[in-house]
Amino acid sequence: MQEKQPKPPPLLLSSQLSLQNRGYEVTLNSAFLSWKEVETRQKRTAANIYGPLKAAGSHYVPVCEIISVQETEEDCPSTGIGKWQKVPQSLAESNQYAFTVSYVERTQKHRWRCSEVTLHCTDRTLCLQWVQAIREQLSLLTIRPKRLLVYINPYGGKHHGKRIYEQKVAPVFSRASISTDVIVTERANHARDHLKTEADLKKYDGVVCVGGDGMFSEIIHGLISRTQCDSGVDQNRADETLIPCSLRIGIIPAGSTDCICYATVGSNDPVTSALHIVVGDSQPMDVCSIHHNNTFLRYSVSLLGYGFYGDVLTDSERKRWMGPARYDISGVKTFLSHRYYEGTISFLPADENVGTPRDKLQCRSGCNICRLPSAGKQVSKDEESVSDTEKKGAWQVIRGKFLAINAACMSCACPRSPKGLSPAAHLADGTADLILVRKCSRFDFLRHLLRHTNKDDQFDHPFVEVYRVRQFRFTPRYEETDSDSELELREAEGSGRKRFFSQICREHPACSCSLAHSSWNCDGEILPHAAIQVRVHCQLIKLFARGIEEQSVFEEPYTLSAI
Ligand SMILES: Nc1ncnc2c1ncn2[C@@H]1O[C@H](COP(=O)(O)OP(=O)(O)OP(=O)(O)O)[C@@H](O)[C@H]1O
Ligand SMILES: CCCCCCCCCCCCC/C=C/[C@@H](O)[C@H](CO)NC(C)=O
Ligand SMILES: [Ca+2]
User: Fold this and answer.
1) Which pairs from 443-449 meet CB under 8 Å and 24+ separation?
2) For a Cys-Cys bond, which of 162, 207, 412, 532 suits 420, CB 3.0-4.6 Å?
3) Beta-carbon neighbours within 5 Å of ion ligand 3
4) Topology of 143-281 in CATH?
């Protein structure tokens, strides 16, 4: 049986207009604006002279990807590509009214560009009718922001934040008639404090951050704290259900790693990010809360890393003047030092219905795993969304010596590592991937690290374990009391599950490695405590993004060669 084709939405307007001196059938419905070339009689060949007028090329632009439309003031009909052209006198006279539609065009590597088409009409009334009809459709897109609060870190990355905003982003916002209040930060934590206590958030439809992961971290700390404070939620209580933030956040990448932007959009391109803001995309995101005893320390959305990544960050902070290259220098130095750390990790694993970190399937735009009810769509209900097996308190305990302990709430893809620290991690499933890299040889560790930069599986080593978790705790060996260890072990035994133990340093019982101290790298900031409790809050924030689009969306844009 033939499948029924969905009925196209009713036509709103249809006219024959001209583009680059050729006739086009232009139509608008609530879903698409399309233009299709109409062959003129002169162009017809003997073979098709008696056939129907044939479309040589059709273009479809989804209405939700139109940025703006305006009447074009011209002395002479333009070619639509910004060049003067000799126009036949008859056409020039009859098509002197025109309107220009700006729309999103997909280019390579998940980048978006602002493209334009100028369509010419025979009379002004028709031209205005088109402008009005398109504007009416755009006004129905209520998810689009109209007023934004923008924070620029002038010192992020290569110090180009201000220039990037002024030259690449502000013109896009202005074309889309978005008004902005812009604050160029004057010190670290300026944006966080302003959002937390001063900003009149009711005036805005979103907050934009121009900078890197550290600047984004400031923005989420300001917004989350403000939201909890306004709702009377105590952030110091590790078991509190946090209230989701209502304002969406846009990231204009201008930092050193830009991992949050890259992992949610697929590129670190300022114009692409600006266009995702303009079309009003919305991508929910998980956030980890980090506590030490009953004191709130920080939130994390990307990498929470102890050992290797903590040491890279500590060293690189002293080299900030080097810009993004500091991470490479400190990376090599830390790798050569080959320090390992002893401690205990306990964690609450997530149910397998949210997938596993070894899945081949990756989180992409419209991800099914992130839409599962068990992913804990409602943050305020994330306790209820945790399944019974998870609730039974099936905590697992692992003690050992580690080169790195990493938790990734999302893939952490970035230009350095295009598939990320945990390629199958999800943006909004209420879980984080906990990666334990046990003590191994330098050569093996290098093999593991290099696999972050190519297609090989970085978890496929006997010294690497990875778990999908909802919560975890870490205590470094030097802070562990004997009763801590006993308690943890009894908890694990009490729940009747398999116990996990490390290879305790039998070969050097008295070595000083167990006393070595590292720090946590929390989205690029150093945490003051090594012993921490971490909990994932499902979909606590929303970004102006849509997740990484499948490549096919880019390969087959809405341009059909012939229909
Ligand atoms: N005006 C300012 N002066 C000094 N520091 C600032 C200012 N504004 C913000 N900061 C701080 O600068 C730090 C780094 O900024 P940002 O994240 O933008 O760049 P980055 O560290 O180069 O990039 P990435 O975090 O992607 O590696 C942030 O932690 C932020 O708190
Ligand atoms: C000696 C060879 C080393 C190759 C190592 C490649 C591994 C790259 C993995 C990068 C993951 C980055 C995760 C993102 C972390 C950000 O939160 C943080 C702040 O921007 N950036 C860093 C570098 O800590
Ligand atoms: Ca997640």
Assistant:
1) 445/335, 445/338, 445/403, 446/335, 449/335
2) 412
3) 286, 409, 426, 429
4) Rossmann fold (3.40.50)
